[in-house]
Structures are given as structure tokens and as C-alpha cells.
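Problem 12. The chain below contains 366 residues. Write out its predicted structure in C-alpha cell notation.
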Amino acid sequence: MFESAYRYPIAVDFGDTSLTAVQCKAGRRELTVRGLYHHDLNGAGEDPNQATEAVVSALRQVAGSRQFSGRSVVAHLPPDRIFSFPIRFQVGRDERLEDAIVRETQHYLPFPLENAVIDYPSILPVAAGADNAYRATIIAARMEDIHYTLDIVKRARLSLQAVDFSVSSLARLHDHLFGMNDNPVILCHVGRSRTLAAVIKKEGILGERMVPWGFLGLIKKIQDNMELKNDRYKAKILLKDYGLSEALGSGRQAVQETTAQEMICQILHQIISPYIEEFIDELHRIIAYTRSEEPDTTFEGIYLYGQAAGIRNLDAYVERRLSIPAKVVGPMEGFADSAGKALADVSEWDTFTLALGLGMRKVSWL
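Solution.
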């Protein structure tokens, strides 16, 4: 019997200050990218109605673009609309698993349970202790934020099929690129103003944090200290071309400096290394939390996604500081465009990382 190829929905990542959309397509041999769209919402203003109209306008551009097919959408909510935390619980003799999760979750929600939409992308048995004991990663959102997203998607004449979460999308993308095994990996998505760090293995999520640390913090440090107040582009070039080279000497990807270049490397290191160390501290925290749950944990590696590609030698710096292999991952590795040609790995596409992982989600009823 003839079986039609699966149609992937349009993936929409509602960021803090931007909207990103991706649609994947099943190719003959590999997954391809059918459509890409990015729109900066910084100019939308502070008025909520004006901001909403800007989002609807961007969605209508997606709906009207020939790059995208169909009307079905899966979405990420903005990071500040998501609440995540770990729980431990025991299922009672006459209690369902879902009821036990709700019972425990309500103690940690910052809003009433009746106004919550709850999901648990990972649930693992506690290695030792009482029977029917589990630990889970809980992700929650307010009901009104779900309704708001439904409304703005509908206004663009699109249909919201599912809401997913960044940690699930990042894990899905990583599994596509590298696969998962029994040893956990640390996945980091460096965003503009926030960074997602998660410890994941084949069975599920061992730990997850969203931290207020991002790429724009580094850019601001460079602008403030190198008289580049009105030249963000030049600050980005300096970070990408030199970055953490001075800290590595003649090591991996070290810049072969002239005297002037050596001075730039030294100045940049003095400017950005304290802020980089804040990121290292966050990684120490999630590593310590994981080992408190599973003391014999051995990490396979640290994978740095998103805007990490714009920070030269960040992987080598992280590897040296934590003694765990580290790698910066280009967001388009393992993908091709709809014509089958490998997509170029340009830094402007680093913002598509989470949307790519979201776009790989299959919705069974489509």
C-alpha cells in the first residue's frame, strides 16, 4: 500500500525579543529544512497591544511564505512564561502516577494549580529507597499564556497543534545529530540573554536550569570597555575572531598573533573572562546537582549550541576549566535544504537551534 511521506508542522519559537520559525521535510535519505524565518521584535515597543500586533504580523508572514507548507504549528512559549523544577515523589498504593505528580507539583507552583498547564518530559525511578519512588522534571505554564498563544496563532490563520519545551527540543536535536547513550551529556543552549543547561541521557533528563546569562552580556562588556557603544557589529566580530584565544596560548584554535593582535586578545580576555566564569559557575552547579542524585556519574561531554558559535574557543575554555570534553555545535550540522544541498553554517543561523529541534517533533494526528 502507498504510504505518503510524513508532513512536519511549522515550528515557531517565541523568544524574548524575536520570533523564529522552521519547517522540516523528510528527504529521501535525510531530514531537510524546507523553510526558515527570523524576525526581531525589539522595535515592537513596550505597549502590550503593539507587541501583540507585531507578533501576529510576523506569524502572518510565515503563513504567507512559500517556504512553509500547511497551517499546523507547534510552538515554544517565551522563556519567561515557563516554570521548570525537579520533584521527588512516591506513588501511593491506590494512587495513579499522574495524580502523584500533581499532588507534589502544586507545592512548587508560583500560581494556583487550577490555572496551570503541567507536563513532565522526563520521569525516572529513584535508584535506591522506597518502592514506587520517582524523580521528574516538571514544566508548567499559566493557562492564560496557552490561551494567548492559541489566539495569536489563530489570528494568523494558523492552527496550534502542540506546545513543546526548549529542553525537549534541544534533546531531540542532539539525539538527531549525535545519538544518546547511557552516559549523560551536558547540553547548553547559549541564547541572547538566557542560557539553557541540561544534563540528559537516553533514559531522560537528570537536571535542567535556565540561567540569566547570555551572548548579549558579553557583547555589552566589550562595547562598554572598548569604546564601541554604538558598534555592536564590531563587538561581535571581535568576540568571534579573538574571543578566548589569549587564555589558551598555543592551544586549540589559538590565534597566531602579531603584537597588535596579541594585545587585543589580552584585553578581550580581561574584559570577558569574569563573565565567562559566571557561566562556568552555573555548569558547576548543575554538575554538582547531578552527582548528588547519581554519585558515580561520568559525563560523556559538554555540547554548546546557539550563540556559543560566536564565542571563539569557548569549547576549549570550558573543557579546560571543567576537565570534560566540550564541543561547539553548528546549528545546521546534519541538515540539508530542500534541494539536498548542505546548508552553510553561518553565525546568523545560530538563533534557529531550538526551532530546529522543535521542528523535528512529529505530531501523530497530522
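Discussion. The longest strand covers residues 31-40. Students who got a different answer should revisit the alignment rule from Section 12.3.
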